[in-house]
């Protein structure tokens, strides 16, 4: 980032009230003040509401994310890693499609670094469900890093990697509305994977998020179901913003063109973490149906993004779906989860790792569902 700016909160809040776009450096300054604890709750709330009301730009969100990384705990995962995550906030109370798609992608041989949190608007976020499945959330950061290579998948619990976000918890809870903070998590994976499949429930933010990835040179798709789901939906079509070679292309994905029969919202409805974890186990044990269709579609898209091949996107997704089906049918996806559970309970090869926050200590800093 550039040299420190001579800024004040009145400067920035006045600009937002006047609906003036901020620069990358200005939003980076604001986020640095927030995550370091120097901003007051009133300043945090004013900034969050002002930016959301004005409407975020790519430059503004880029600055916010850059400052998050400046204050984050990061890990280094070798090779071309993948994240599959949704922003949450769709109020669908669906099963954890992104979590299941991530496990299936890992079963197909891709290294997955999953970033997520506890539930914010649903009954079960990624962290809640993984915990029910037997994955430890309180691992030292060294061990989190090792599992990516050892198992093929690992989970970065957001509250531990971005502890400064705890300073946003009270203002956000008292505001009770979605703000820009709800969309930052998927952009701030501590491993900064080269490929990302991101679901975004907000139609206006999806192209902004795609623009941020384009500026960073990440191969990513940002998508939103036309039913409002923060996934590629199987109830109707989805809008997709595909990022590659520094640009963004938009297209519509119709699951029927990929041979999938339409589902209903009830087909994908989840419950609490215990129930949703049972859905994961059933899927990996071979259960077929509408949940499997949705998982295969999302895992197929993630695998297509990771492959980064040229050609028609629908054909690429179809090829990815075949790999996802094989991951499930061969038992490879189930084996990944079994290895993950076992390995998450073992000590780091490098000894005692760096201290990590308790998974419940910063629970109020949660910002997205999957």
TrEMBL record:
<feature type="binding site">
    <location>
        <begin position="96"/>
        <end position="99"/>
    </location>
    <ligand>
        <name>5-phospho-alpha-D-ribose 1-diphosphate</name>
    </ligand>
</feature>
<dbReference type="Pfam" id="PF00591">
    <property type="entry name" value="Glycos_transf_3"/>
</dbReference>
<keyword id="KW-0822">Tryptophan biosynthesis</keyword>
<keyword id="KW-0028">Amino-acid biosynthesis</keyword>
<feature type="binding site">
    <location>
        <position position="231"/>
    </location>
    <ligand>
        <name>Mg(2+) 1</name>
    </ligand>
</feature>
<dbReference type="InterPro" id="IPR035902">
    <property type="entry name" value="Nuc_phospho_transferase"/>
</dbReference>
<feature type="binding site">
    <location>
        <position position="98"/>
    </location>
    <ligand>
        <name>Mg(2+) 1</name>
    </ligand>
</feature>
<keyword id="KW-0057">Aromatic amino acid biosynthesis</keyword>
<feature type="binding site">
    <location>
        <position position="117"/>
    </location>
    <ligand>
        <name>anthranilate 1</name>
    </ligand>
</feature>
<feature type="binding site">
    <location>
        <position position="86"/>
    </location>
    <ligand>
        <name>5-phospho-alpha-D-ribose 1-diphosphate</name>
    </ligand>
</feature>
<dbReference type="InterPro" id="IPR036320">
    <property type="entry name" value="Glycosyl_Trfase_fam3_N_dom_sf"/>
</dbReference>
<feature type="domain" description="Glycosyl transferase family 3">
    <location>
        <begin position="80"/>
        <end position="333"/>
    </location>
</feature>
<protein>
    <recommendedName>
        <fullName>Anthranilate phosphoribosyltransferase</fullName>
        <ecNumber>2.4.2.18</ecNumber>
    </recommendedName>
</protein>
<keyword id="KW-0479">Metal-binding</keyword>
<keyword id="KW-0808">Transferase</keyword>
<keyword id="KW-0328">Glycosyltransferase</keyword>
<comment type="function">
    <text>Catalyzes the transfer of the phosphoribosyl group of 5-phosphorylribose-1-pyrophosphate (PRPP) to anthranilate to yield N-(5'-phosphoribosyl)-anthranilate (PRA).</text>
</comment>
<dbReference type="InterPro" id="IPR000312">
    <property type="entry name" value="Glycosyl_Trfase_fam3"/>
</dbReference>
<feature type="region of interest" description="Disordered">
    <location>
        <begin position="344"/>
        <end position="370"/>
    </location>
</feature>
<dbReference type="InterPro" id="IPR005940">
    <property type="entry name" value="Anthranilate_Pribosyl_Tfrase"/>
</dbReference>
<feature type="binding site">
    <location>
        <position position="231"/>
    </location>
    <ligand>
        <name>Mg(2+) 2</name>
    </ligand>
</feature>
<feature type="binding site">
    <location>
        <position position="172"/>
    </location>
    <ligand>
        <name>anthranilate 2</name>
    </ligand>
</feature>
<feature type="binding site">
    <location>
        <position position="230"/>
    </location>
    <ligand>
        <name>Mg(2+) 2</name>
    </ligand>
</feature>
<dbReference type="Pfam" id="PF02885">
    <property type="entry name" value="Glycos_trans_3N"/>
</dbReference>
<feature type="binding site">
    <location>
        <position position="86"/>
    </location>
    <ligand>
        <name>anthranilate 1</name>
    </ligand>
</feature>
<comment type="pathway">
    <text>Amino-acid biosynthesis; L-tryptophan biosynthesis; L-tryptophan from chorismate: step 2/5.</text>
</comment>
<feature type="binding site">
    <location>
        <begin position="114"/>
        <end position="122"/>
    </location>
    <ligand>
        <name>5-phospho-alpha-D-ribose 1-diphosphate</name>
    </ligand>
</feature>
<keyword id="KW-0460">Magnesium</keyword>
<dbReference type="InterPro" id="IPR017459">
    <property type="entry name" value="Glycosyl_Trfase_fam3_N_dom"/>
</dbReference>
<feature type="binding site">
    <location>
        <position position="126"/>
    </location>
    <ligand>
        <name>5-phospho-alpha-D-ribose 1-diphosphate</name>
    </ligand>
</feature>
<feature type="compositionally biased region" description="Basic and acidic residues">
    <location>
        <begin position="361"/>
        <end position="370"/>
    </location>
</feature>
<feature type="domain" description="Glycosyl transferase family 3 N-terminal">
    <location>
        <begin position="11"/>
        <end position="72"/>
    </location>
</feature>
<comment type="subunit">
    <text>Homodimer.</text>
</comment>
<dbReference type="GO" id="GO:0004048">
    <property type="term" value="F:anthranilate phosphoribosyltransferase activity"/>
</dbReference>
<feature type="binding site">
    <location>
        <begin position="89"/>
        <end position="90"/>
    </location>
    <ligand>
        <name>5-phospho-alpha-D-ribose 1-diphosphate</name>
    </ligand>
</feature>
<feature type="compositionally biased region" description="Polar residues">
    <location>
        <begin position="345"/>
        <end position="360"/>
    </location>
</feature>
<comment type="similarity">
    <text>Belongs to the anthranilate phosphoribosyltransferase family.</text>
</comment>
<feature type="binding site">
    <location>
        <position position="94"/>
    </location>
    <ligand>
        <name>5-phospho-alpha-D-ribose 1-diphosphate</name>
    </ligand>
</feature>
């Amino acid at each position: 980032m550039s040299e420190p700016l001579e800024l004040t909160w009145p400067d920035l809040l006045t600009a937002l009230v006047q609906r003036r776009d901020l620069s990358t450096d200005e939003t980076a300054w604001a986020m640095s003040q927030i995550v370091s604890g120097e901003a007051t709750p009133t300043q945090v709330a004013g900034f969050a509401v002002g930016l959301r009301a004005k409407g975020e730009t790519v430059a503004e969100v880029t600055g916010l994310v850059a400052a998050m990384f400046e204050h984050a705990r990061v890990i280094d995962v070798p090779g071309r890693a993948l994240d599959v995550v949704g922003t949450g906030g769709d109020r669908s109370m669906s099963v954890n499609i992104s979590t299941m798609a991530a496990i299936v992608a890992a079963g197909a041989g891709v290294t997955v670094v999953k970033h997520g949190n506890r539930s914010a608007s649903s009954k079960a976020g990624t962290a809640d469900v993984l915990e029910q499945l037997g994955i430890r959330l309180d691992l030292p950061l060294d061990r989190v890093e090792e599992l990516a290579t050892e198992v093929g998948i690992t989970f970065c619990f957001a509250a531990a990697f971005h502890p400064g976000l705890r300073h946003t918890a009270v203002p956000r809870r008292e505001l009770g509305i979605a703000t820009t903070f709800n969309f930052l998590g998927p952009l701030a994976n501590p491993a900064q994977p080269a490929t990302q499949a991101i679901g975004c429930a907000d139609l206006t933010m999806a192209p902004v998020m795609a623009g941020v990835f384009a500026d960073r040179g990440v191969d990513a798709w940002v998508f939103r179901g036309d039913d409002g789901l923060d996934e590629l939906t199987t109830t109707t079509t989805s809008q997709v913003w595909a990022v590659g070679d520094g640009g963004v292309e938009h297209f519509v994905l119709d699951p029927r063109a990929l041979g999938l029969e339409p589902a209903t919202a009830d087909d994908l409805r989840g419950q609490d973490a215990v129930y949703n974890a049972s859905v994961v186990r059933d899927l990996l044990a071979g259960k077929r149906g509408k949940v499997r269709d949705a998982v295969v579609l999302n895992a197929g898209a993630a695998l297509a993004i990771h492959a980064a091949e040229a050609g028609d996107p629908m054909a690429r997704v179809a090829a990815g779906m075949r790999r996802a089906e094989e991951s499930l049918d061969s038992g490879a996806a189930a084996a990944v989860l079994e290895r993950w559970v076992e390995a998450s309970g073992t000590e780091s090869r490098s000894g005692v790792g760096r201290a990590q926050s308790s998974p419940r200590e910063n629970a109020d800093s949660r910002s997205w569902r999957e």
